[in-house]
Amino acid sequence: MSQKIASPLDFTFPDIFVTNTEKTIIPVVVCTSQNFKNLKAKSDKTLLDAQKFSGTSGQVIPVFSSQGTLKKVYVGASAPMGLYDMSHAADKAKSLSQDIDVCFELTNIDDDEIETACVAWGLACHAKDRYKSEKSKDKNPLLLLPKKADEARIKTLLQSICLVRDLINTPANDLGPQELGHAVLEVAKQHKAKVRVIDNQKTLEKNFPLVHTVGKASDRTPRLIDLTWGHASHPKLTLVGKGVIYDTGGLNLKPGGPMKNMKKDMGGAAHVLGLANLVMAMRLPVRLRVIIPAVENSVSGPAFRPGDILNSRKGVTVENTNTDAEGRLILADALCLATEEDTDLIIDCATLTGSARAAMGPDVPAFFSTDDQIAQDIKTTSFEGQDPLWPMPLIQHYNKFIESSIADIVNSVGVPGDLIFSALFLKTFLNDKEDGSTPNWVHIDMNAWNDRGVSGRPSGGADCGMRALFKYLEKRYSE
Length: 479
Hints:
This protein has 479 residues and is α/β, with parallel strands linked by helices. It has helices at residues 42-50, 85-96, 114-123, 151-169, 177-191, 202-205, 209-215, 256-259, 267-281, 327-338, 354-360, 372-384, 418-427, 466-476; strands at 17-18, 24-31, 60-64, 70-76, 102-107, 143-144, 194-199, 223-229, 236-241, 243-247, 287-297, 309-310, 318-319, 345-350, 366-369, 390-391, 409-410, 441-445, 449-450, 460-461. Strand 5, helix 3 and strand 6 form a beta-alpha-beta unit.
């Protein structure tokens, strides 16, 4: 029996972070391999040496008094601190504190590591048990926030990351196009944003023919979700997210293995919603727009077919060569809409191609941009924030591969090179700016899934590049 979807904003950590406490405080001493060599507590160092502790990320060693009470916890960390180093500490703290009333305090960390450490601690406490009949009864370990911690920012980062992961992890029987729209409305309500939803036949009446075509085979009707927020006088930032809530592959039906995790095919939509939550909560000086085409790619009598010639919002005709290349079709209409107004920057996020996974592996999204400086800045920011994104080229002479003999273009050429072909396909649907120039556009081809669970990053839905994009936007719109 399916269960009611939790509010996408219900993970607010009321019982994890504290700013003062009367509980016994247990220091969590953070050591890198370098500063561990200079550890002054000689008795502790002898104990730690005996347990082969060297300050390596993932190492966590508790120290007890002669009476058997917990005195402190040593945790190894990278230099600079890794994104999930303190998740290991939180996991250990959880097991140590079940029967004692204590609060943990991070020590020996630099001011610029506070945010990373606290976010990692919080992520280790994010339970993935919504559908378990027996939920975990373990209490989460309290953390005394450092005095220089920005509590609101830390909680918003955690909320946005968990929003992305929870939406991706929600199975399609509980998350259809309508429910995805409800999640957008919930986020919008928190920030007094406006939302317009164009549903079912109105997607045809309002000229979103590709969105309608991909979604019409499902009894859960297609829709286009359009959120706006901020002052009209501010630079226009538009986020577009692929919202295929489940992808069977259509008539080009996927095999069982690849179809298993296709609830993640709305990962692009989840990412732009999480990113929008950050932008609005942090009050970036932008006029934000979020466009999410939401569909289910199903198989039934009305399903579109290989060989069909499809119309688009821009008027470009598409020869459909593969119904499993549906994400780029719905994004085409959405990107056309996004560029019907003069924007400063457009970012789209999509779980689009296996070629990007083959090129970059599961954790590093490939991305494309029409502006080389924007691409370089995003790459630099992403590596500084340990949330890497890697730029790929828009090879212009590859446009010949997406030409059709009977229509304007085809939607799928195949591998190798599909990640570039699909990016060029999407670029076709951008309208030029008022001065005739190409819009500033960034296309993120992501996996949004983690097969190997680790502390702070469990298996399942994964945030990929969202924090890096937010840091880039902060820099871009604060200068």
